[in-house]
Amino acid sequence: MASESTHIILEARELSVGYFSKKKTTAVASDLDFQFSEGSLISLVGANGIGKSTLLRTLAGMQTPLTGEIEIGSKELSKYHPLELAGVLSVVLTEPPSSKNLSVLEFVSLGRQPHTNWLGQLSPKDKETIQWALDHTDTSSLAQRKCFELSDGQMQRVAIARALAQDTPLIILDEPTTHLDLYHRAYVLKLLKKLASETNKTILFSTHEIDLAIQLSDKMMVLTHEGLQMDSPAALIEKGAFNALFPEETIVFDKDTGRFTIR
Amino acid sequence: METTRSYSKMFFFLLLLLLAVFLLNVSLGSVAIPLEEIFAALTGRETSKPTWNYILIDYRLPKAITALLVGSGLAVSGLLMQTLFRNPLAGPFVLGLSSGASLGVAVLILGAGAFGGILGSLLTNEWSLVIASALGSFLVLLAVLAVTLRVKDTMAILIIGLMFGSVTAAVVGVLSYFSSAEQLQQYVFWSFGSLGSQSWSGVLILSICVVLGIAISFLASKSLNALLLGENYAKSMGVQIKRTTLVIIITTSILAGGITAFAGPIAFIGLAIPHITRQLITTSNHRILIPAVLICGSIVMLLCDIIAQVPFSEYTLPINAITSLVGAPVVIWLLVRKRKLLF
């Protein structure tokens, strides 16, 4: 099992994330310590506005941490050249591509950019990786379609295919299940699970699908006002970590079913 | 970026069309010259009338080459702006460059009355309009660059460019209020745009601007492709956004600023041509789109110039009006047919 691997791909120490404004800093979440091991599927859950996106953006190097350190592959995140970082970390964002006129094949093949020459020419190996990414996300049949013709579920798979084509040991996805129906939510998360175990990639995603995440994740990060808890889903249930997620007067977590029920 | 189809047939067709339109452009004009005489003059042989040789080599040929350069340069800079601002309505002049150029020219022509003296004597020089226009564009460029270095949001640059445009247009308005009818007429004639008044040295400088601009655009095509996904995705793939934005803005300024300096403001080509090209070439890959847009821009500009000539008559219509008359209906037609303008 990949999750038994002891290789640490990402480590955060005393990390605080938030925003710099003119003279003060606004911390959204602080004093976070965690490690990601290779080949594991990690989900990040928490209430709206708790700082999931801010944490993901910080880990992806899109914004700077307020304090603390992030190491990816035992090298400080801030020391990475942008192109070098693109070789170890790829992202799937909530936003669709700006140009809807891109074909699926063009969109996915753009994932090879960090590996291509100055003109962006694709080598046979690049093309192989692109085909592999399409095959693994069941999107080969969509290759010739334009992005504006896709459903939300198809678009999400294509976006994952692009990140796969970038071929990085670490993939970060920001709420990959939003706007999807139940089938596609389960499909996308199962796909991530399969990719993590088959390709030994570390996949981190934020989600509101707590019950699905409990069933599929190797590790879960539960972000609340009290701080961050990270463990296997079963251990987190035992600790009662999910109870602290939401105000208890509206919904409560049922330990036996692994679901939230309305009070 | 992988492209599914080969477009070599389309490119062959477009190049053939370009050649045909170029020859047509050179052969039409107020003086009828037989076709064999045109070939004779173009291949450096003697024409049966020396005036024909003069008309072709010193008037029609530089004009056709100017049209080709203006069309290709504006079309490519329009494509760059549409990709950078992720906005199908962006064109080469969204940054306010043409307004800057008009301001430069307005200060020269209209200000000559107000300040007299040195400015008035400058006006007689054939290069003065070119230099005034280039200086105007350059000042706006500096302002835009100063803003680009400070703000993070690309959309803010777009809006600030539009604001610069409004401010300079207002200053031109104030200047024209205090000007004589004669000066106003001279300014209005400049704003009509003109392809025909170039000397060969002017054509040479213009071609340096255009070739340089297009070469940089082509070198930037990989980053441009990444920008199609949006800034965040581009960043995640190792593109240095700020540097790329600067390169694209400077390239557009070289192209649009240089062209406006020599040919005056030419509307619509930059906005419409990328959309027309996308009907023929369905890929979004800039490595293919840039050459295609360049050829289409040249073809349309040469055609517009043929119309502006009003063949076999002595009239020459303002080129700026013709490009709008051709460009605006095309954009409307595209919108009605496709119901949306994708980029």
Task: Write up what this structure looks like.
The complex is a heterodimer of chains A (263) and B (343). Chain A is of the alpha/beta class and 263 residues long. Chain A has a domain at 1-88 and 201-263: Rossmann fold, CATH 3.40.50.300. Chain A has helices at residues 52-59, 82-86, 104-109, 124-136, 152-166, 182-199, 210-216, 233-239; strands at 8-20, 25-37, 41-46, 67-72, 75-76, 89-92, 170-173, 202-206, 219-224, 227-231, 251-254, 259-262. Chain A has a 6-stranded mixed beta sheet with strand order 6-7-8-3-9-10, sandwiched between helices. A 4-stranded antiparallel beta sheet of chain A has the order 2-1-4-5, covered by helices on one side. In chain A, α4 (124-136) packs antiparallel against α5 (152-166). The longest helix of chain A is centred in the last third of the chain and has 18 residues, at 182-199. Chain A is globular and about 55 Å long. The termini of chain A are far apart. Chain B has 343 residues and is mostly helical. In chain B, α3 (50-84) packs across α13. The longest helix of chain B has 35 residues, at 50-84. The two termini of chain B are 16 Å apart. The mean pLDDT of chain B is 86. At the A-B interface, α2, β6 and α3 of A face α10 and α11 of B.
**Largest interface summary:** A-B, 40 and 31 residues
Helical stretch tally of chain A:
8
- CATH topology of chain B: the name is ABC transporter involved in vitamin B12 uptake, BtuC
Arithmetic mean pLDDT of chain A? 91
Helix content of chain A: 25-40%
Quaternary structure: heterodimer
The poorly predicted ranges of chain B are none
Number of DSSP helical runs of chain B: 15
Alpha-beta content class of chain B: mainly alpha
Summarize the main sheet of chain A: 6 strands, mixed
Q: Give the CATH architecture of the domain at 1-88 and 201-263 in chain A.
A: 3-Layer(aba) Sandwich
User: Quick one: how many beta strands of chain A?
Assistant: 12
Spatial shape of chain A: globular
CATH superfamily of chain B: ABC transporter involved in vitamin B12 uptake, BtuC
Order of helices and strands of chain A: EEEHEEHEHHHEHEHEEHEE
Main beta sheet of chain B, described?
none
